[in-house]
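Supplementary notes for students who missed Thursday's class. We covered one full example, reproduced here. Read the sequence, then the structure, then the short commentary at the end.
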Amino acid sequence: MIRWRGRRERAAVRRDAEHQGRRVVLAADWAITLAVRRADGGSLDVTPDDVRRWGAENFLLDIPADLAADVLTARLRVRGYG
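Structure (token representation):
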């Protein structure tokens, strides 16, 4: 019984961490999308602060600056901007 409880708790922690990660990625994607709309064919100007601001406004997240920069760089690469 105790082993099952520990598994459930570890699974819950893992699910929460995965959910948090998805929200950070979504914040980065929206920051990129909004920057593309603002650029209108010009140069793309998006910063980790944009990611942090979007996450704070929409998810009430406090995203660390280094995490925002890493996720933003990865998402720009995936979307073909970097």
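Commentary. The chain has three helices and no strands. The radius of gyration is 16 Å. If anything here is unclear, bring it to office hours.
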